Amino acid sequence: MSPIKVGFVGLSKSGWAATILAPTLAKNDKYSLVAVSTTSQESAEASAAKQKETSGHTVKAYSGDTSHIANDPDVDFVAVAVKSHLHREALMPAIEAGKDFFIEWPAGKNLKETKEFAEAAHAKGLRTMVGLQGRHGAVKEIIESGTIGRVLSTSIIALAPRELRYWGPEVSEKNLSTAIAGEGTSMSEIAIGHQLDVFTYILGDFASVSATTAIMYPTANIIGDDGTTVKTIENTSADHVAFTSILKSGAVASLSWRGGYPSKGRQQFVWEIDGETGAIRMTDDQVASAFVHIRDPKLYLNGELVEVTGGGLATNIAARWEEFAKGSKGDYATIDDAVRIRSVIEAIGLSSREGRRVTL
User: Fold this and answer.
1) Listed residue (79, 73, 62, 63) closest to 16, CA to CA
2) Is the peptide bond before 106 cis (omega within 30 degrees of 0)?
3) b/e string for 231-244 if b means 16 or more Cβ within 10 A?
4) Distance of CA 29 to the CA centre of its chain
5) Cα Rg of the chain (Å, integer)
């Protein structure tokens, strides 16, 4: 079977797409990167030249409106990895052109926009993939084997540490949008969103949520690349999020995220899953361990460490590319999963604002 010919939107010479997404894709012979699109022709040509060195074949360079790369007859599949508030203008031309696509998480800036993507993709009969890459097969296999019996409860305590400069009293200049509500980059949308996909993949969907969110750090120093404060702004995006839930399985769940604390002396991540006959515990104190799509925490079954091969960010992403290439049999997150996770995030926000439990 011939490789899937990929046009990549947002693939500059550096950044997330260039350092993680494209390299893992390039190592899979089921794909061939044939075109790139960036904001300027200069950066597009530089990116295309870099990708040519890696692939050994010519890569087309497009800039500006993504309809150019989307309507290229040599492109089968469009990958989009730009800032979240630009997702709509980058992705819709690909959908309109009838191209299967990858869209980085969070797919849409909000639930409404994400549903729009899903409806448009379904109308065209497209295959879709969303950048939710932290699914843990080992834990799912333990639960499905019946080793710990029926799951009765689960709890997560997670930290977005100050050193990452996302949510809290220090925010890096490149992450400025994370301090501003409505930009699609809140703690609930990014950190918790990734975790919710892993959570529901393992334990199933939520039936209801009751949430509390708070801004414990009302201002943030915006830190430049040189480590100095560029300016101080008001934080309008919550840095603490906690909620309880009943899952559709009947299990009780409790999740708590907090941001802005220094890492030293703090447990980064603890996830416990209690069954009738046993228990699973995932934990780690490495910085950013709570970001389960990036890190693989230590896994314990009934107190005994379970050795899990592979894992890590690049491995997780490479696995999703491989799964998508399998077609309908593949195990990967789709735009429908994005709508599902966005619906939970929306319910968390609504519950916090109105002080009530929200049914999903």
Assistant:
1) 79
2) yes
3) eeeebebbbbbbbb
4) 24
5) 21
Query: Residue 203: pLDDT above 70?
Result: yes
Does residue 91 register a pLDDT over 70? yes
The verdict on domain 4-104 having CATH code 3.40.50.720 is yes
Structural domain spans, the chain: 4-104, 137-312+321-359
3-class DSSP state of 324: helix
Instruction: Pull the structure tokens for residue 323.
Output: 């799964």
Q: Is domain 137-312+321-359 classified as CATH 3.30.70.100?
A: no
In this predicted model, what pLDDT tens digit does every residue of 272-295 receive, in sequence order?
Answer: 999 999 999 999 888 888 988 878
Q: Which long-range contacts (CB under 8 A, 24 or more apart) does 296-304 make?
A: 296/136, 297/269, 297/271, 299/138, 299/139, 301/142, 301/147, 301/148, 302/148, 302/278, 303/279
Q: What is the pLDDT of residues 137-196, one digit of tens each?
A: 889 999 999 999 999 999 999 999 999 999 999 999 989 988 999 888 899 999 999 999
Give this prediction's pTM. Answer: 0.93
